[in-house]
Amino acid sequence: MYRSKNSHLRLADRPADYERLGIDPIPIAQFEDGQRIGTERGRYEWWYFDAHLDNGATVVVVFYTKPNVSPNGPLAPRISAAKLAAIPAGASPADIGVQSMS
Which end of the chain lies in a sparser environment, N or C, as judged by fewer CB atoms within 10 Å? Predict the structure, then answer.
């Protein structure tokens, strides 16, 4: 298990964590495929996906329910992506610029 240097954080991977959330570590149930937390003030959720393509490029996409810098605001879904296209092999998202879409 990964332990953070910050003593206030830890990976929720203990049996009691799964029990508290009402889920099993394996397999992932169909109901888990969606939003897991509320949308009230101070909360937001995000999903991160990356794909490594056969040509060595990478595609990175992140979906947010709210801007992560203002979680007290209303729902404002958005998608951030590395141009929603492949990042050339050897480059980083910063090299080509990251584009946000609402």
Answer: N
Decide the pairing of beta strands 58-64 and 99-101: unpaired
As separate numbers, helices (DSSP H) first and strands (DSSP E) second, the chain gives 2, 4
Q: Give the C-alpha separation, 82 to 46, whole Å.
A: 16
Q: In this structure, are residues 43 and 37 in contact, taking their beta carbons and an 8 Å threshold?
A: yes
CA distances, 74 to each of 30, 67, 69, 100 (Å)? 27, 9, 12, 18
Residue 47 has pLDDT above 60, yes or no: yes
Tell me the pTM.
0.48
Q: Residue 82's pLDDT is what?
A: 61
The tokens for 91 are 């480059």
| Number of other residues whose CB lies within 10 A of the CB of residue 57 | 16
d(CA 82, CA 89): 13
pLDDT at 19: 92
